[in-house]
Design goal:
42% helix, alpha+beta, globular, single chain, Pseudomonas-type_ThrB, Kinase-like_dom_sf, 312 residues, Aminoglycoside_PTrfase, six-stranded antiparallel β-sheet, 12 strands, Aminoglycoside 3'-phosphotransferase, Chain: A, domain 2, Phosphotransferase
């Protein structure tokens, strides 16, 4: 659980006043790699999520709130942002930024149930139909430009070599305004809320960008189709079948899909190493990057079996 900014009682009271809430409880929420979030329950049993935007400045925080509003207005199932009493999308208190959103009841599971995979694929396909917002978003937010240079300094030289080799295998065409769509960037199980009615909602849009739609599809296949450390072809087929019902992948998109999965793996492995070894050293999590290379190797080995099924 990320609790980088614990909130004192008096700070919470000021925030309740700022947002016009009559609060009964505030409980830290599990999850979140960078920002602290609290589940706020009011005396009349309404629930909200209050996020301390530790990893943002005013510009990026406001852009996130505007993006959430755009998504809700376009019918995307996600958390609705709520302005403070003065109408500001992000509240500032003691040089800290706060975003209030409606709470989405349900569960977030790293291993999404198989029964929800077709719905996940269909939801992902529908996201590519959402029009880009009227304000600027990053274009092609992928592996940082200096990633390979920084990886050369990793203490694990074998992993640095793996990053360099697979970054080349995962190279994708450049993104630009004319060929890009809105992508989430991290559509993993812990960013999907599964409601009691089986419907899915999407959380955590902080890595959103304009990019090729195959970037999101590759990330989702990597994240949702793993079983016991292996690439689960049955899960991948379910997810792809749901996606294809809404938006059948073109031949070109299919050809880019394995490179997109490879790109996702490099991105995940690189950021795990940087976060847990360098930026926020955490011995309990320093092994996590080591899971990525063998899992990607298994995907690449088994990929022809999936491709044959899809092309048949």
């Amino acid at each position: 659980m990320a609790t980088y900014s614990p909130l004192a009682t008096d700070t919470l009271a000021q925030l309740y006043e700022r947002f016009g809430l009559s609060c009964a409880t505030a409980e830290p929420l599990a999850g979140g790699a960078a920002n602290t979030s609290y589940l706020i329950t009011t005396v009349d049993d309404r629930q909200y999520v209050l996020t301390v935007l530790d990893n943002h400045d005013t510009v990026s925080a406001t852009r996130l709130a505007r993006l959430l509003r755009h998504l809700v207005d376009c019918g995307v199932p996600t958390s609705e942002p709520l302005p403070d009493r003065s109408g500001q999308p992000v509240a500032t208190l003691a040089n800290r930024l706060f975003l209030l959103k409606n709470y989405l009841p349900g569960t977030c599971q790293t291993q999404l149930p198989s029964s929800a995979l077709r719905a996940a694929g269909a939801l992902l396909a529908r996201l590519r139909e959402v029009p880009p917002p009227a304000f600027d978003l990053p274009v092609g937010r992928r592996l940082p430009a200096d990633a390979l240079e920084l990886a050369e300094k990793f203490a694990d030289h074998d992993f640095a070599d793996w990053v360099r080799t697979h970054a080349a295998l995962g190279r994708l065409p450049a993104a630009n305004q004319s060929r890009s769509v809105l992508v989430h960037g991290d559509l993993a199980g812990d960013n999907l809320v599964l409601g009691e009615n089986g419907r899915l909602a999407v959380l955590d849009w902080e890595t959103a960008a304009l990019d090729l739609p195959v970037v999101d599809l590759g990330m989702t296949l990597y994240a949702l189709c793993r079983t016991d450390g292996r690439f689960d072809l049955a899960r991948a087929r379910q997810l792809l079948s749901g996606y294809a019902e809404v938006w059948p992948p073109s031949g070109q998109e299919w050809d880019l899909l394995l490179p997109a999965i490879t790109h996702a793996a490099v991105l995940i492995g690189y950021h795990r190493y940087r976060r847990h070894h360098i930026r926020y050293p955490d011995k309990a999590k320093q092994h996590l990057y080591l899971e990525v290379p063998p899992y990607l190797a298994d995907i690449r080995t088994r990929w022809p079996d999936l491709e044959w099924q899809q092309r048949a």
